[in-house]
Amino acid sequence: MQKFEKIIALIKHEVVPAMGCTEPAAVALAAAYAANQVEGEIEKIELFVSPSILKNGMGVGIPNTGLVGLDIAAALGAIVAEPEKELEILGDLDESQLAQGKALMDKITTKMEASSEKVYIKAIVKSKSQSATATIRCRHNFLYQLEVDGKTIFQQEIKQDENCHVAGADEFRLKDYFEFANGVAYEELLKLDLGEKINRRISEFGLSEDSGMGVGKTILQNIKDGILGDDIHNYATALTAAATDARMSGCNLPVISNSGSGNQGLSITLPIIAASEKLGSSHEKLIRALALGHLVSIHIKNKTGLLSSICGCLSASAGAACGIVLLLGGDFQKMEYAIKNMIGNTTGMLCDGAKEGCSLKVATTTSAAVQAALLANMGRSISPNDGIVTDDLDETIDNLAKIVKTGMQNTDSTILNIMINKKNNKEANDV
Fold first, then answer.
1. Residue 1: what pLDDT?
2. What is the CA angle 351-353-356, rounded to 5?
3. Which domain holds residue 98?
């Protein structure tokens, strides 16, 4: 069916591998594009980024470095200078590249661009004889423009609307995704990388190593000690939080991301994987549930925006809840219930940047996802009389989007100002 083919194309576009936190990876990619065009030793790198990129890149660990922030990401991207690696640009770094990147950090300046765009990165890389500028806009891997010595050598049109919504997602409704997940040929889904193995691997790393806050590892230990029950709820929370612990602390393992976010990819896939393991689901059912989870999250992110003032794990965990409903044999109405339960429960969780503490938020939304799915499976949904939830699911999601885009319009700038002041005060005290 043509509809199914378009949905498969949508998955391929939005469900992709990423190394490290997506915002620093995008900055590294921009620097790589520019550095690839200049000859000679790099003497200076200037970064101009949108508030959302700055917020999500200030405090997150960069793979292999033991460092945090956008400066080291840009430095390493410029040293690697292989933009064809896209959002995996920070993977497979050798000792020489790490040393060169750290040495280059003193030559980097980062400034916030007063841009209304959520994703905006301009990287200017200068050598003694040349200067190149790469601009990424709209999407984390969308090269908008490339200039060398002031001359444009590449530019592509942004076809999405001013909010840079997910290309193609407006064509479909949630019921289309439910029908796809249940009706598309299993063999077609096997051709897609939905995160079953890659995301499970980084979860295992987080469970075995002391990564970040160790939220997932601590939950698993409490299960082993008999303090927590060995059930779907706690197991899903442990697996998902552990992967986030590892990723946010700079683990050198890739993840399968969703809508430009690795944490969202983890928050969709790992609760479903955990539930399938506990339920003894068939591999086919697992793959269908993963596809549904990804698509539900894409649908919600298309409405709320790729980057916003609320934690993206809300939409991701709503997708996870729907995947668990499918594993339990639920119908479309129960899927609707699961999404409403998630929106009624977790709307308002703020995004205050990517950091190690994200694993706590992931644990919270994963817990909510399992609860939402189990309630929905019993035919229980939050009342349309409650808050922003209505009888109509799409209207409920639209209400969520209104809160994000209108009601919380100044929230991002307030959060960022707090974070910048905190950073400045710390640097002043360290002098």
1. 64
2. 110
3. 17-155
